[in-house]
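Everyone, describe these structure tokens:
***
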Amino acid sequence: MSDIKAELHKRCADYIKMRMEAAEQGIKEAQQASIDDTKSSAGDKYETGRAMMQQETDRNLGQLNEANKLKVALNSIGTGASAIAEAGSVVYTNSGNFYLAISAGSLIVDGIVYFAVSPVSPIGLKLKGQKMGGGFTLNGKTYKIERII
């Protein structure tokens, strides 16, 4: 794996870890709030508070599940070099640099901005299968493939 691919992969893994930790913290806080509410409430107010805490727990469980899906997707990405853009490729274009992996936003490595995009996102679908010198148009913007690693 090239140094840039390794660094982008690591940053995507860090992004997932951060999302998982935030979701787990949210679950703990909702559970603690539910326990605290149990100690100090009675009647309808108690039931409403418990329902709100359950909704918060469910929302955070959903986020944790999504982060786990991202982790599985990231771990399944190939690391070999390819002349064709595919999951795991770093694609340099005239309009930006892309890491085909997971949707993790912009990542700056050595002062260069890379956009971590899912292969099933609109731009990911356009990038997949491209070769150096190829190109495509998305939302009225033309992209020319300059390099793929």
The radius of gyration is 21 Å. The beta strands are 90-93, 96-100, 105-109, 112-117, 135-138, 141-148. Residues 3-75 form one domain. The longest strand covers residues 141-148.
